[in-house]
UniProtKB/TrEMBL annotation:
GO MF terms, alphabetically ordered: urocanate hydratase activity
The organism of origin for this protein: Oryctolagus cuniculus (Rabbit)
Its EC number(s): 4.2.1.49
InterPro entries: Urocanase, Urocanase-like, Urocanase_C, Urocanase_central_sf, Urocanase_CS, Urocanase_N, Urocanase_Rossmann-like, Urocanase_sf
Protein name (database record): Urocanate hydratase
Domain Urocanase Rossmann-like: 252-475
Length: 714
């Protein structure tokens, strides 16, 4: 038996055994664990497509949430092309059998998911040592992929959708099997290339190169329309990866819990002038993949959260998780309970099983008949980036009626959605005449409402602004300008104790940064995040992998990464830790209606920042990188990217973390500085003083605005 020392300098070692008959071809050794049966299953999962014999075709499984039926409207020739594209994954001797069932999937569901190949193995993030791989990087990537497809995490697991209604990990199950097989074979001198879910293959590269490069939805700009997307996705040639679905970095709803906590806290400060939100009411909608976080966030900030949801299964899932305290399908009971909680200043998360438009209109009725304003803060987290295919359900129909009409008459369904949006905005506008504050949560709600003809215009504003602000513009914008954004890590051991160690390290690091002296505005952000870490463990926020998220700036991210890497090296943490972030960050996303909506120099519709970030992370040590079209506000509306960086306790990992994380923040701060943001100017200037290798072009302000007008008169 040979041994491979996976954790140097006192860290844990792993035992390797010679190749067995069940191991993937070409592998000289596999990592082993105490669970032989578990390893055998994972070995089978990494051995390529199961073809001889073919697995049984169980189709769509009952009792599992499923994606809405898609309506790509393919021509007969395009249907043949979609089928041909799917069959090219399979040898000739099985094509006749598979062609018939793939054609049926295309007709019934608007896409070929290849349900026959949904794995029998329980899909979850297994401890890293159980994956049969040649490299730690590959095993870490497998850990992340499996988490994205865990039914406890994924919104529609059989359709490979992690969140957002259509955020795909892969386009079909053949791609999953091939990707796992390639990762098992990959060496430190190969890079796996992914084209919109399709594993193009392993290509020779250097040990310092990324082990994985992902692109999703990179469609020529003139063809990046919603209708064109439906056609291309049905053909199996592109994919909507949302943000962290297609980059394998989703950590369950914890990420959006944290973002919503900070958003509501800062909204209370900005709009209500309140640090204490006891007795304040926050009304919103959505309890699905990401929006389900809103209930838990309301409890953490100490307010009353009332969340409407039309899908009973999604609502019950959050209730069983303990994230939703109470549930009712009675609007009368909802209002009664809201009043009671307000009077007693209770902390409450209340799920209303019904349409949010009914809820908003009832709140207007209460205001107009009693004079009582029952809501203080409001937003919306329906998947309005995908409003006509299950992202938004019109108030005129029941949930089942809407699903039926969506598939049978898409044009009629679209008309009802747009009418419903107009009604929702009308109710919000009435409440906003009082002391009520609404914001767009970056889900394209106001954008789609505008397209529907709703009254959301802000007179005299540019086209990225509406009557109500984006949370980025008024609530989170200053955070991004200061270099703060959603930084996260995953403990690949799967051990909660490892996560507890990282929590302690992160808290200690942030307290140390504060003690060393920071500006008051920066200190407030650190204090909010220290509070978050302490609350996170108490509120049991882990769903799926052992992960944590917090908002931090460049200094904090680098210091936390170094501390974690050193803890791995000395054995305090048992296995590698994957660093990542949401694409929704300082530098990762160019999105004129969200992340870059407060860029005022005309470049909000330019995507240089996100593309440069993707390339720059790859050059500076990222284990994998991803670049996506779409995410958040929808296809064709945004370019965004992300990364994964494996910390394994080595000096090389520390060096990569220092280099890559610094760039990953400074890029966006420098861009925001150049656009004229004063806070970004201060932060990047300070960074240049601390690092002589950083030299950024700084803007000169126009001292007298009259100069512009005078010059243009001639």
């Amino acid at each position: 038996m040979r041994e491979w020392r996976g954790w140097p300098r006192g860290g844990r070692s792993l035992t390797c055994r010679p190749l067995t008959a069940q191991s993937p071809p070409g592998l000289p050794a596999v990592w082993t664990s105490t669970s032989v049966s578990g390893m055998s299953s994972l070995q089978a999962l990494c051995s390529g497509l199961p073809l001889r014999p073919l697995p049984e075709n169980c189709g769509r499984r009952a009792g599992v949430p499923h994606a809405p039926v898609r309506t790509p409207n393919l021509s007969p020739a395009e249907e043949q092309l979609a089928l041909r594209n799917a069959l090219r994954y399979f040898p000739v001797d099985v094509q006749e059998l598979l062609a018939a069932e793939f054609a049926q999937e295309l007709r019934l569901y608007g896409h070929i998911y290849m349900y026959r190949f949904y794995p029998d193995l329980e899909m979850k993030a297994y401890p890293i040592e159980q994956y049969p791989c040649r490299t730690r990087a590959a095993a870490a990537i497998m850990h992340m992929i499996m988490n994205n497809l865990d039914p406890a995490v994924a919104q529609f697991p059989q359709e490979l959708v992690t969140y957002g209604g259509n955020g795909q990990v892969f386009s079909n199950w053949a791609q999953f099997w091939l990707t796992m097989s390639y990762l098992a074979k990959m060496t430190e001198e190969q890079t796996l290339v992914m084209y919109s879910g399709h594993p193009l293959g392993l290509f020779p590269s250097s040990p310092g190169a990324p082990r994985l490069v992902i692109t999703n939805g990179m469609v020529i700009p003139n063809y990046s329309s919603r209708a064109e997307y439906e056609r291309l996705f049905a053909l199996g040639v592109t994919m909507y990866g949302q943000m962290t679905a297609g980059s394998y970095c989703y950590i369950g709803p914890q990420g959006i819990v944290h973002g919503t906590v900070l958003t509501v806290l800062n909204a209370g400060r900005r709009y209500l002038g309140a640090e204490d939100l006891a007795g304040k009411v926050f009304v919103t909608s959505g309890l699905g993949g990401m929006s389900g976080a809103q209930a838990k966030a309301a409890v953490i900030v100490g307010c009353i959260g009332v969340i409407a949801e039309v899908d009973k299964a999604a609502l019950e899932k959050r209730h069983k998780q303990g994230w939703l305290m109470e549930v009712t399908d009675s609007l009368d009971r909802c209002i009664e309970r809201l009043r009671e909680a307000r009077r007693k200043k209770e902390v409450l998360s209340l799920g209303y099983h019904g349409n949010v438009v009914d809820l908003w209109e009832r709140l207007v009725h209460e205001l107009d008949t009693t004079g009582e304003l029952l809501v203080d803060l409001g937003s919306d987290q329906t998947s309005c980036h995908n409003p006509f295919n299950g992202g938004y359900y019109p108030v005129q129909l029941s949930f089942s009626e809407a699903q039926s009409l969506m598939a049978s008459d898409p044009a009629a369904f679209k008309g009802l959605v747009q009418e419903s949006l107009r009604r929702q905005v009308s109710a919000i506008n009435r409440l906003a005449q009082e002391h009520f504050f609404f914001w767009d949560y970056g889900n394209a709600f106001l954008l789609e409402a505008q397209r529907a003809g709703a009254d959301v215009e802000k007179k005299g504003a540019n086209k990225t602004e509406f009557r109500y602000p984006s949370y980025v513009q008024h609530i989170m914008g200053d955070i991004f300008s200061q270099g703060f954004g959603p930084f996260r890590w995953v403990c690949t051991s799967g051990d909660p104790q490892d996560l507890a160690v990282t929590d302690q390290l992160a808290t200690s690091v942030l307290e140390g940064v504060i003690a060393a002296g920071v500006k008051a505005s920066v200190k407030l952000q650190y204090l909010d995040n220290i509070r978050w870490i302490r609350e996170a463990a108490r509120h049991r926020l882990v769903v799926g992998s052992q992960a944590r998220i917090l908002y931090s700036d460049q200094k904090g991210r680098v210091a936390i990464a170094v501390a974690i890497n050193q803890a791995i090296a000395c054995g305090k943490i048992k296995a590698p830790v994957v660093l990542s972030r949401d694409h929704h960050d300082v530098s990762g996303t160019d999105s004129p209606f969200r992340e870059t909506s407060n860029i005022d120099d005309g470049s909000a519709f330019c995507a240089d920042m996100a593309v440069q970030n993707f390339v720059g992370d790859a050059c500076r040590g990222a284990t994998w990188v991803a670049l996506h079209n779409g995410g958040g506000v929808g296809w064709g509306e945004v370019i965004n990217g992300g990364f994964g960086l494996v910390l394994d306790g080595t000096p090389e990992a520390e060096q990569k973390a220092r280099m890559m994380l610094s760039w990953d923040v400074s890029n966006g701060v420098a861009r925001r500085c150049w656009s004229g943001n004063r806070k970004a100017y201060e932060i990047i200037s300070q960074a240049m003083q601390e690092n002589s290798g950083l030299v950024v072009t700084l803007p000169h302000e126009v001292a007298d605005e009259r100069l512009l007008r005078q010059a243009l008169r001639h």
